[in-house]
Amino acid sequence: DSDFGGGSYATFGDKFRLGGALDLSDEPVMIFRPTSGAAGPTYLIGHRYDGYDGHGWATLVGDTFQAVNAEGDRYSAQMTFARGQAVHLSPQVLTDRAEARGTVEVLRSKGDLLFTRDTYLTADQQTNVQLSWRQLDEAAFDLAGGDLSVAPLDLRLFAQTLRQAAWDPAAAGGVSPLPADAGMAAEIARQSDELRRRFLDTSWTVGPDGRVQTLVVSGQVPVYDDVEAIYAARPLPDNAAYTIVGLLSAAPADALRAAGQEYPEWVTDRYLQLPDTVTPRTRELAARLAAGQPSVFDTAMAVQDYVRSAIRYEEQIQPPPSDRDVVDYVLFESQEGYCEYYASAMAVLLRSQNIPARVVAGYFAVPWDDAEQGYLYREKNAHLWVEVFFPGYGWIPFEPTASQDPLEYGDPGAAPLPTPTPEPPAPTPEPEATATPAAAVTDPTPPAFPPSLDAAGRALGWLGIAFGGMLLLAIVAAVVVWQWKLRGLSAAEGLYARALRVGRLWGVRASPAQTPIEFAERLGQAAPATRHSARIVADLYSQEIYADREPAPGALAAARAAWTDLRRAMLGAVLRRKS
Question: What is the dihedral of CA 521, 523, 525, 527, to 10 degrees?
Fold first, then answer.
């Protein structure tokens, strides 16, 4: 029997079992209103699943996380992000992505689950992000070349500090020596202790040149690229609303064809798994479909097209036999079902060919609703589809269900924002004898100054206008000077320069010997709400100046969003400080 019992995919829980007849209501559940970026009909994502057992799907993210530390304390695999704090996505998933914002109005509560678009970036409230973790056991990172991107994000500040230190060459060969400089030694010890409190044990070696050579780490670090679900800090009631920011893929088919198969380790560890229930004839079918295909993208399209044609869409079906692999049963015997059967078949066939795939539960795209001035989703729009991983481009959606149109690949911003339908004027209500409305001020004539103050008032009025004009000119001049000083800078340099200026408003100044990541850490200590956003901007700049690598467009989009959040948080903090 299945280990993945539980409700339907439409409940968006941590697991579900493929079942029989589908019965979803016409009840409205949410309205999505795009505010920037791609604005056409969109899929909304509730949950992603990596584990298939022959009968259903589940999230196995808990298997990647050590929940109990040496002292017996239990921790959650979810990470908490502050309001507006962006998930730090790597270049492995950011190529050809464009930012898109929108607001979700909750009509029927789904508890604390937030629905997102494509690759999640941030939300306008505190969130608990469910993601996978990478276990490190004496993992060695070569820092001798100065490329800090070889280390996980959460270790780069420490790696940067080690790179700045200088040792006596006699320390070469020793384990975790401290430099002679007392200040630097204290800082290395402090950061090492802080990492240890986060269950990351570090050690390092020094080369003959007196510079750090290798950083060795044991413990666990989050995989920010591997987000499964987003939860609010508390359940959202009916009529609540939240804003989400996602990064939509704009990658054309030819770019995806050229992506190759150099998958990150976390992808192959989690998204190629198949149980023993998968039958030889399922694997043979997958091999036939993949034969002669020039790329992973073409194989995925071939599998998608086959599944769409081989399975007849039918919601009123009998449950599959409990002693049979569901995918084998639907492909070779029943050959009928609804979205969860199509998606399961496609994902298993692709995994049989060592192509990373996962299933996604959410809502399929719906047409614009004039009455609601947004996209109105109902319970019957609950859906399951497939995502395939492409190196550099991240997870790309596919639509294997025959009742839905296949997806197109390219610019997601082609569709303009829908034009709201003008509302007709409200009818004039008939007067009611029992209601006496309050008197309204209808006289458009402005009040006059008292006679004795008339001349002075006019003088003061002209002075106010003059002062306002001077103030406006000063503001314009300040903006011009601000922008002029940024001329000639690259995008990453410009974002970091802006972060430095905003930091000065809080009294945080970067010294010439300080690295960008160290500045971001100081800024985060002064104003904790800015910590993550500052790290995103600093990390992008560090990649450019230390790794000599131009940032991907998606990475720039994430950094620009982080800069906006950073500016908002810092200016708010400065205003509160001065008030």
Answer: -140
Looking at 69-83, 425-439, 555-569, which range is the least confident one? 425-439
The DSSP line for 444-507 is -SPPPPPGGGHHHHHHHHHHHHHHHHHHHHHHHHHHHHHHHHTTT--HHHHHHHHHHHHHHHTT
Q: Which residues contact 194 (CB under 8 A, 6 or more apart)?
A: none
Return phi, psi of residue 96, to 5°: 55, 50
DSSP 234-266: SPPPTT-EEEEEEEEE---HHHHHTS-S---HH
Contacts 24+ apart (CB under 8 A), 138-144: 138/216, 138/217, 138/218, 139/216, 139/217, 139/218, 140/214, 140/215, 140/216, 141/214, 141/215, 141/216, 141/217, 142/213, 142/214, 143/212, 143/213, 143/214, 143/215, 144/207, 144/211, 144/212, 144/213, 144/214
> Is 199:220 a contact under the CB 8 Å cutoff?
yes
C-alpha pair distances (Å), 502 with each of 120, 506, 526: 26, 7, 12
Instruction: Name the range with the highest mean pLDDT among 238-242, 415-419, 527-531.
Output: 238-242
Coil, strand or helix: which one is 403? coil
Position 511 scores a pLDDT of 57
- Would you call 400 exposed, middle or buried from its count of C-beta atoms within 10 A (0-12, 13-18, 19+)? buried
Other beta carbons within 10 Å of 289: 22
Half-sphere exposure in the Cβ direction for 113 (13 Å, CA): 21
**Model confidence pLDDT, tens digit, residues 192-241:** 999 988 889 999 999 999 999 999 999 999 999 999 999 999 999 999 99
Residue in 355, 337, 276, 384 with CA at minimum distance from that of residue 3: 276
